[in-house]
Amino acid sequence: MGRLSDKVAIVTGAASGFGKGIARKFAEEGAKVIICDLSADAAKAAAEELSCDVAVANVTLREDWERVLQQALDKHGRLDIIVNNAGATYVNKPTVDVEDKDFDLVMNVNVKSIYLSSSVIVPYFLREKRPGCFIQISSTAALRPRPGLTWYNASKAAVNTATKTMAVEYGPNNIRFNSVCPVVGITGMTHLFLGKPDTEENRAAFVSTIPIGRPSQPADIANACCYLASDEANFITGVNLEVDGGRCV
Ligand SMILES: NC(=O)c1ccc[n+]([C@@H]2O[C@H](COP(=O)([O-])OP(=O)(O)OC[C@H]3O[C@@H](n4cnc5c(N)ncnc54)[C@H](O)[C@@H]3O)[C@@H](O)[C@H]2O)c1
Question: Which CATH number fits domain 8-243: 3.40.50.720, 2.30.30.90, 3.30.420.40, 3.90.1150.10?
Fold first, then answer.
């Protein structure tokens, strides 16, 4: 028996990076996983590699959330876990140089996606009187912001506050909401955070503030998510779990 046996999970942004690591861990622990990503080719490849279902979807669109929920119910008859991992940032730059499209990107992909996922899926849990589990992939940027990423950092702070609010509101319905806050990792987004190519040398300033002395890895984030998604965590809600080698201390 795996730690997530019989559970059905949607993992967004699971074609690469942290999301793919989360999908891998959940599948290893017995969950039925729907890899949900905007990038069709990468999503299909990840789904094939990990023996998961695939849904090509844009997390900023209500109709896509409705379609992915229906896909889970049609195929598996239930949904238990939503990992809101898909995220976006603009390149690190002075705040006065940020353009409207940069602001809209981070607010839509990082925040509106949380709004839409809860707006579409919480009613399902309430209707079916089922326990539910939402995990948002936030960031240490919400808690220990660095310069040059003002609106990315603010979008992740919004994720944390929305998560805590919904944890309080829906605790009586046994729907849990938690955030995981990773420190910098090595993924498709890292060069944007750095504002320069992702090399060990360019990463050194970020890594120097991490007591354990290394960037995060997808498995670090996946292990934290697995715990939060499992029944071992059925009394844990409203938590922002920093997975950061001590960065936020
Ligand atoms: N990499 C880091 O250093 C770091 C640190 C802290 C938090 N995070 C967060 O981790 C999460 C995962 O990012 P990652 O680092 O693995 O990056 P990544 O670029 O490897 O993965 C992001 C995935 O999200 C998908 N995506 C983007 N917009 C989407 C949309 N509108 N709809 C559906 N899918 C979409 C992309 O196609 C991609 O597969 C993000 O929320 C990010 O903010 C990353």
Answer: 3.40.50.720
